[in-house]
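Hi Prof. W.,

I finally got the Saccharopine dehydrogenase NADP binding domain-containing protein prediction working! I wasn't sure whether to trim anything, so I left the full sequence exactly as given:
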Amino acid sequence: MKALQAHTHCAWATHCGSRRHLVHRQADAAVDAAAGGPAVGATCRRTARRRNRAALAVTAASTRPAPPPPPEIVGAKKVVILGGCGRVGSSTAAALTAALPAAQLSLSLGGRSQDSFRAALARRPELSNASPLVCDIDDSSSLAAALKGADLVIHAAGPFQRRNDCNVLEAAIAAGVPYMDVCDDTDYSQRAKALHGKAQAAGVPCITTTGIYPGVSNVMAAHTISTNRGEYAPDGSYAEEAEQGGAQPKRLLYSYFTAGTGGAGPTIMETTLLLAGEDVVAYKDGQRTVLPPVSNRRVVDFGTGVGRRSVYLYNLPEVSSGHQVLGVPSVSARFGTAPEPWNWGMVAMARLAPKSMLADRQQAKQLARWLDPVIRGVDSLVGEKVAMLVEVEYEDGKLASGLYVHPFLSTAVGTCIAAFARCMLAGQTQPGVWFPEERGALADRKTLLGMSTEGCTRFLLNRTPWQLETDPVQLGMGLYL
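And this is what came out:
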């Protein structure tokens, strides 16, 4: 079943949602009839329904259409990955290596030393054809040399928090090299977006905040909203004149879960510590609202395999871009991890630690390194599963949700970044600096989503919430959890 689910893509999830709902209702009716009608105990009927739905799901999966074909990339391409020797960068390099023929792809992995390149090869032997590139992103001459002759630069040298410049983006625009980054910082992304006119005038395509979240999560939200608005032509391309027949979105909620650090190492811990020191910007009824970090706990059901998890408000860039680009009045983003005491620790850190410490990149890095042995031990116990739930509420009361679940964050993040890179290498991005949800970023969202969901155990879009939820657990005495 998982092998079949791994090939689920957004077109099937969107088109077949109502079909599956009908199949489930027919299955429920058949169970009631076979069981002798409503007089039979609810628990027996519920168990039978789950079994019948599981059997029908296999049949439905066998008839689902194939994912969209990947975009065509013409000619050999040179890709430079800054931060390519780190966990995220090397995962991206591995995904690109697996997706493209060796004769078509020339990879340069940027890092501060040859030692970091050797460490990356030790973790990922499949990158033996990649070339080392010693580069300092804070040195303009080093950057210019690194970008020479590149067809695409991927900026994965995070964390992006507390950086006051966009020097890699500016160097890429000056060199005429298409650019994308894996930024997860609101301020940085807004500074990058401010260079849109400069990139457009230079004819350089750029995307900021690519990756899994933000990145694919933005595209999930945009695809859901655009489908309801009638913004697609029958062939799936953007319609020149949208029908505008659907209700407008009222609220957009992003919820993310990662077990442990997701195998991403100290960098994700360093980023989380820095975010714990940032006030959260959210939007409510069109008004900008500032809230404390790691606050407003919400329990979210990520469905079978992940279950119900606590998530907390963090200051993430997809909130501002979702409000600005998609025009949603109320937007927020939450993140949570496992085990639950990690979340409690982050709450305590956000409340008790000096703001000056959480605002200091060096102190956050030192603390993350100090915690690294403990983190590795916990990661070995809880795994690295990742889940994203994107919920859209419309003005007419309609709810539409999207769910993404992958067993390994370290693999998923590389797959998602590589999907954006493949779209850019195929010429799907217009000149300018774009957020992932903007039309100029991707000529075909479904293709991006199809590539991004490789290896997923679940991927669904435009579903009602009950279709994604975990089956209730009976506690006894008529009580369910």
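The chain has a mean pLDDT of 83. Does that look reasonable to you?

Thanks,
D.
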